[in-house]
Amino acid sequence: MKFVIGPSSKLLFLILFLSVTAGSVSAVEEKSFKEWTERFEFKKPLVRDDGQSSAKARTLPCFEVKIDTPGNKLIRVSLPFVSGAFPEESAIKVSCKDKEIIPAFRVLTVHPGKPVFVRRALLTFPFNFQKAGVYLFTVSSDKKRLTPKPHRDLETLPLILKTHNVEVKIGVEQIRLKYHDGAEYKAEFIGPALTANARPKAEIIEDTEHYIWARLLVPDSKWPRIIEVRIDTFGTVAVQAHLQRLLSDDGTAPDIGWKIEQITGSGFKKSLEHSFAEGKDFNQKTSNGRYEVYFPTAPFKRRGVVTVDNKTSTIQYLRCRLSEQVPFQELSWRRAEFVIGSSGNTRLNYLLEPEVDITIQPEIYDSIYSCGRTADLSKWPVLLSLTQYTHQMIQRHVMVGDDFGNISDSMSDEHGSVFGMNRLNHCSAIFEESYRTGNNTLRDIAVQWCSNFNDLTIYWGDRDGCGGTRYPGVNGGWARLPSEEKHVGDKSFMWRSNCSVDFCTKGFDSFFYAYEETGDPRMLAALNTQLAYSTEYVHSDRGQTRNIGVAADFMKLYKFTGLRTYSDEAMRLFRELRNLLFVNYLFDQGGQPLSKNLPFIDIDDVGYKYGYPKPYILGYALEALSDLLIERPDEPKLYETVKSLSDFFAENVDPAGGWRYPHANSSRLPLMLGMEHSAQLCRAGKVLEMRGESIDKLLDAIELVLSAQANIYNKIGTFSNGLEGWEHSTGILKEGKTINDLYKTPAERNPSRDYTEGKISIGNASIDGMVYIGEVLNFYLQHRPAERLFKPNVQLTKVLDRLEK
After folding, report:
1. Residue 249 and residue 247: Cα distance in Å, rounded?
2. pTM of the model
3. Nearest residue to 596 via CA among 615, 612, 585
4. How many other C-beta atoms are found inside a 10 Å radius of the C-beta of residue 501?
5. pLDDT at residue 418 greater than cutoff 80
6. What are phi and psi of 82, to 5 degrees?
């Protein structure tokens, strides 16, 4: 594709020129700074505010808190509420045994319609736990909530925030903290100097008696930044700097960090230096032990150093040093944080949230996300163990280092690839698995993935449209711009493209989940910009028909917010695709008409020359159009398309469990990818059942996939990610040749030899299939007994016989 500099890119270069030649802010810069600020400032999520709300129940949620050590803890939890359960204007009470608490209460989202009912809300309160154990907290409504807001002067800097035990002054380059006992600290941001005299914008995200969250948005022509401060009821202060790089070429990060000086107080015991290269944690207490400073994300980034100087009572934290050459692409973000507060208070984790184990009943989540509930697997220890092992493997896919929080696209027994999925469409499945199972680690992984995506993967410029997803394969050989060519072959970091790519832009509904979990305004900025990009630039009738998958994101958002514009966008994508459907309602990846007399297709380069139904691509449509069919049942050809797609997958499933790639008759069988297609069949199955149709054939296909993974895991204790064509292991392929060189038509190949001679990939699972095991297993067990899964067919038995534990 030819590269053309877009309007925003031209504006960027002009700003850089003007910033050098002029000492004051020009009109062009001022306009650009205003646009930047508006892009990242906090905006409440949109929701349909007319029509009748669909009140379902008045059941209020409860939650359990597991405590390992007694003491006064900060509880902060985002609770889900069923529509009809909690009116927006009501107050809330929390009870535990004989204690009643009035928590701080921040509404995050509401259900569509009127009267207005809360959907998700953050509760924050301190609680003194007398001993270790599990505590049940119940929620009840009270009289009308009064929400007097303290007056905050947002026009004058520094921004001053006062609580009962600490005063915080927030400036552009400096933050000052003064505690009630007289201890005072000064923190100065370490980073590149601002190049323009732009007006910052202060905003309050949350302002309650137990929690204050403020930000300072500082535009600049080269190094804009967001200074963020969170203060809790114990006086713990979390400070984070978000630094964006507007330079027009990729580079590496300068020194970034914080210099923290104790102005008054007992100082620090000794001087020392600590490196985070090995992932070891660090915290520094004052000499009297009253206060401590620590860096929650630093051990995971494996970069930087902290230096303590007891003579000057100074701590210098470098999140990264210039010499470490941390990749920093144009228009991406890097962050540096520290936490300071009284020793012994609730520690904050890498999400800057209190480290407290909280569990919420899954039926409440199911009521607002339709995520289902986990089946009772106690009678089937193999299936229970398989589920738990899956959760562990998802956790192992999380990257540390320069790409912390991204999800590796493959995982061996020891190390994952530096290449990530870089498509967010599998993230919501991790959120929903955490909801079904109460596994908070999965929830944190999904949130951090969204955070990583916001910082490094969304392209915040205007090449091919602002807000799209960057392409992940630059260092794998796919370079669109001259500036990207230098990364080709670099295996140390997943360099992304410096442009938006439509067919990678999917999964933005995950940002809605992340916002509802955290209340983080960055998640809404990411959601809004990807929504705007997808509305304008994502189409299913040009370039890539796989873009029909984005209809799934639009339909999720429609269900959550009731905004018809979202379902209209999903319908637009289907109507575009409808023009390219074959007679049998299937379609080709590139939108080509169906080719007659297809040759044997074993690699993509051959397949691109022909029009044919590719299982991997059709799966996007099956997932996306199922929900759309519920909403628009009378749309011409929509039902026929969903039915034809379902039949295709049911008829073309491999006996060993899965679908071949790229063609249904190819040699490669990616077993784990079959789990994603099974999840797509589950969603179609729900819709077809609602229409009174039999889904036995769909269940047969799902059964084959589950049976393969369950029996393989039962025998060897890990996954099998795929089965390779027998031609590779038997040595009949000459060097430089592919299986495509052996056969002219699919009929010439004998696939039965794959089960007895094809190489089996062990212990290397792809995340895009793995995240769906819980969903697929739950759906299957609602329809069929588990015993059927442990009766492998002939083909699977041949594969199992060749496996060694």
Report:
1. 6
2. 0.95
3. 612
4. 26
5. no
6. -65, 145
Cα–Cα distance between 308 and 273 in angstroms, integer? Answer: 6
Residue 737: partners with Cβ closer than 8 Å, 6 or more residues away: none
pLDDT digits (tens, 9 = 90+) for 561-598: 999 999 999 999 999 999 999 999 999 999 999 999 99
Cis (ω within 30 of 0) for the bond into 115?
yes
Instruction: Please choose, from the candidates 76, 78, 107, the residue with its C-alpha nearest in 3D space to the C-alpha of residue 91.
Output: 107
The ranges assigned to domains in the chain are 62-144, 159-342, 397-537
**Tens-place pLDDT, residues 229-273:** 999 999 999 999 999 999 988 999 999 999 999 999 888 989 999
Q: Please report the pLDDT score of residue 11 as a whole number.
A: 41
* Contact in structure between 499 and 537 (CB atoms under 8 Å): no
Q: What is the pLDDT of residues 689-701, one digit of tens each?
A: 999 999 999 999 9
Side-chain half-sphere exposure of 478, counting CA atoms within 13 A: 12
**Which amino acid appears at position 499 of this protein?**
C
Tokens for 320, please give them.
């990264």
Please give the distance of CA 473 from its chain centroid, rounded to a whole number: 19
CB atoms within 10 A of CB 307: 14
Neighbours of 339 (CB within 10 A): 20
| Overall average pLDDT of the 646-667 stretch | 97
Are the C-beta atoms of 468 and 492 separated by less than 8 Å? no
DSSP letter at 378 equals T
CATH architecture for the domain at 159-342 = Distorted Sandwich (2.70)
